[in-house]
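Worked example

This section walks through a single chain of length 354. The input is the sequence exactly as stored; nothing has been trimmed or padded.
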Amino acid sequence: MKKFKRTFSTILLGSMAFVLAACGSSDTTTDGNSGSAASEPEATEQVKIIRAGIGLNDEHPQFKGLLKFAELVEERTEGAIVVEAYHSGQLGDDRSMMEALQLGTQEVTVPSTAPIANFISEFSVFDFPFLFPSSEVADAVLDGEVGQKFLGKLENQNLVGLAYWENGFRDLTNSKRAVASMEDFKGLAVRTMENELHLEAFRALGANPTPMAFTELFTALQQGTVDGQENPVATIYLQAFHEVQGHVSNTHHIYSPFVFLMSKTFFDGLTAEHQEIVSEAAYEAGLYQRQLNREANAQYLENLIEEGMTFTEITPEARAEMVEAIQPVLDKYAERIGAELVQEVYDAIEAAKQ
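Given that input, the structure is written out below as tokens.
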């Protein structure tokens, strides 16, 4: 009997050691969408998880850019960092996700500059209507010295800006009438982002702007709470706004960049090698995402017209009238942001045009 007890105890201790060893290994099981499979890290390494959330859906070039980022990171870290990509506001709206990054409870989000301006007012300059004449000029400015200077301002908010991606030129849709001139804006209830500059600019154009979370927008359009909204064409089509909107105008009133943000708490906890990897991956995935976005916008405009939307071309004369109308708003915000900083951006734009 004693012999049996000793044998049983030996087996039990061996089994417990096996279980404890198994529990000590890294578990990378996730609920999100991750990039391509990578080789398993050594058992002694702790796998780091990046939860990357956006508000747009999984068909948008922004989400495809996140998947490219995941693929690059997982491959180059040999699986030591795994990226979970969440779309459609699964982790919250832009503001709540940015706050989660600040708290260190989320690792990545890619908002437009407009919500960032609620944290760092200087970012409002990138939401000046009619600032960038083309996407190529925007690329040169944002990827250049001026753009990097703005990314550096994020660290004071416990955020790290790794790259600029693209939302694109914002256009107007509505359910009331074709908008071809300033006169047509009058009285339109237009949903905007929660950004004071946007609100004041639309008031100057004669519209009635209504700030609203993006996740609430389709229902608000469907129920007639607002008459219209403004977003790049890819967003308009992929969010099926054509189902509740009859008119689209290429106002191109704002070129809207995305900013790839990472929690500073998380970034600072990475090795120097991994910091370089995620930084390069964010930039490379951004180049990929911009190209996808531009191709998508061209195609989706055709799709919107095929779906029955009335397309209205804004003439250079009508656009010039809009620029004149919003100039007092720009002057006000230039003074608030800092005339010298705003002039730096204008100078960079002029240089990029050459």
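What to look for: The first strand starts at residue 48 and ends at 53.
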